[in-house]
């Protein structure tokens, strides 16, 4: 059967969608003439906007799939309901990792590898390889427009180093503390004086946190939290001299656009969700061995000691070298 129309049912989280972009690229390279659509949650569709390997982005609409007449579907999410939707839509080839509940709904159902033994991007690429698709050895994709780049240039001041702090995170144990960012900012401002500009980046929910950090820095930073799209943030990361962040979607976007970055990890795994295919001369990771199990993914942790063990002084020394 000639494959003319392909649907990729995406995963649900910003970082995971970004880690799926090598898979999308592999599908395009193996089916250069096919119409490729990605079905994704509305809150994260911006990650895939502008991606030249995709013809169409569908905000989750499982009821109207049948009329779209897809020949093949890849299910990156291990959901039963999404497999059922592909089956009900009459898509002839339905490819996804095996689970007991949905096995009868899939036409190709390879046994999943151990997801805890490999990077998330490799886990998704494994699905492509299992059905004979060729893959490359490149990193993740995030595409920005000329307009976004022009906007970012208005924030960057020629002659001053621009360092971006991304202090937020979707759960507290993954965050490097406010106090650490404040101390790091003070050291940078003391060392570089008027030759550095600190930008506090994040979503609208991070505004209060950014204001507290900026206040402690005598309002010498710029706050972009809640004022930018993901694309604008990515353009700013790309034009900056350094991005400093814990494990988060913005960190992985920064790495994807080729920014220099310091990645601070604690309760999550570098092996699974660390910077993917990053240039080690441009991206430095911190993760300390502790007397507790690391990674632990314990969102009820009381002391965050794995993150606290990473000091502003050692992050500064690395930042100074990268700058």
TrEMBL record:
EC id: 2.4.99.24
Q: Which GO terms describe its biological process?
A: lipopolysaccharide core region biosynthetic process
One Pfam match, by short name?
Glyco_transf_9
- Any one Gene Ontology cellular component term annotated for this protein: cytosol
Q: Does the keyword Membrane apply?
A: no
Q: What catalytic activity is recorded?
A: an L-alpha-D-Hep-(1->5)-[alpha-Kdo-(2->4)]-alpha-Kdo-(2->6)-lipid A + ADP-L-glycero-beta-D-manno-heptose = an L-alpha-D-Hep-(1->3)-L-alpha-D-Hep-(1->5)-[alpha-Kdo-(2->4)]-alpha-Kdo-(2->6)-lipid A + ADP + H(+)
Checking InterPro entries in the record gives: Glyco_trans_9 (IPR002201), LPS_LOS_Heptosyltrfase (IPR051199), RfaF (IPR011910)
Name of the top EC class for this enzyme: transferase
Q: Which GO terms describe its molecular function?
A: ADP-heptose-lipopolysaccharide heptosyltransferase activity
Which of UniProt's keywords are assigned here? Answer: Glycosyltransferase, Transferase
Tell me the protein family, please: Belongs to the glycosyltransferase 9 family.
What is this protein identified as? Answer: lipopolysaccharide heptosyltransferase II
Task: Please tell me the species this chain comes from.
Answer: Candidatus Taenaricola geysiri
């Amino acid at each position: 059967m000639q494959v003319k129309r392909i649907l990729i049912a995406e995963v649900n989280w910003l970082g995971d969608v970004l880690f799926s972009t090598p898979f999308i690229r592999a599908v395009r390279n193996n089916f250069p003439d096919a119409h490729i659509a990605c079905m994704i949650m509305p809150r994260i569709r911006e990650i895939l906007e502008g991606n030249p390997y995709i013809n169409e982005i569908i905000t989750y609409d499982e009821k109207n799939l049948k009329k779209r007449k897809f020949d093949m579907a890849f299910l990156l999410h291990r959901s039963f309901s999404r497999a059922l939707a592909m089956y009900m839509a009459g898509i002839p080839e339905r490819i996804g990792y095996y689970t007991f509940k949905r096995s009868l709904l899939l036409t190709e159902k390879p046994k999943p590898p151990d997801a805890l033994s490999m990077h998330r991007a490799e886990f998704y690429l494994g699905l492509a390889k299992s059905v004979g698709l060729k893959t490359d050895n490149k990193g993740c994709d995030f595409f920005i427009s000329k307009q976004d780049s022009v906007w970012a240039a208005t924030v960057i001041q020629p002659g001053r180093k621009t360092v971006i702090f991304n202090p937020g995170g979707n759960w507290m144990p993954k965050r490097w503390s406010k106090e650490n960012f404040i101390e790091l900012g003070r050291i940078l401002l003391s060392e570089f004086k008027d030759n550095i500009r600190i930008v506090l980046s994040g979503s609208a929910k991070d505004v209060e946190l950014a204001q507290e950090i900026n206040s402690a820095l005598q309002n010498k930073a710029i706050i972009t939290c809640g004022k930018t799209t993901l694309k604008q943030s990515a353009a700013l990361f790309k034009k900056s001299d350094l991005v400093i962040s814990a494990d988060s979607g913005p960190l992985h976007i920064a790495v994807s656009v080729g920014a220099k970055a310091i990645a601070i990890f604690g309760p999550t795994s570098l092996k699974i969700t660390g910077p993917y295919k990053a240039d080690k001369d441009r991206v430095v990771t911190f993760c300390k061995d502790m007397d507790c199990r690391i990674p632990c993914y314990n969102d009820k942790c009381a002391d965050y000691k794995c993150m606290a063990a990473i000091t502003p002084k050692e992050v500064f020394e690395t930042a100074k070298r990268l700058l």
